[in-house]
Design goal:
This protein is mainly α and about 90 residues long. It has five helices and no strands. Its main location: nucleus.
Length: about 90
């Protein structure tokens, strides 16, 4: 069997159906607050749903980074041996 035939078989078996894509887009519509709050969320295009999903994930990452920075600053301002410092360290380190 040629390598091109194997790769086409592998890619066809890993493809998802149109129904699965529709279902995933629907789940994203329900999960992203900016879309969910829209009264006509069912009319939002799939590309707009994916765009908003990417924006939402970027914002979540930024918020997580900001919170980590704030916790680091707080940790620097308290006694490193205190119970509060231990809690903050556990939050920072996940």
């Amino acid at each position: 069997m040629s390598s091109s035939r194997r790769s086409s078989q592998a890619s066809s078996s890993s493809r998802i159906s149109d129904d699965q894509i529709t279902d995933l887009i629907s789940k994203l519509r329900q999960s992203i607050p900016e879309i969910r709050q829209n009264r006509r969320s069912n009319t939002v295009s799939a590309s707009k749903v994916l765009q908003e999903t990417c924006n939402y994930i970027r914002n979540l990452n930024k918020e997580a980074d900001d919170l980590s920075d704030r916790l680091t600053q707080l940790l620097e301002s308290i006694d490193p041996n205190s119970p509060q410092a231990a809690v903050i360290r556990s939050l920072i380190n996940g």
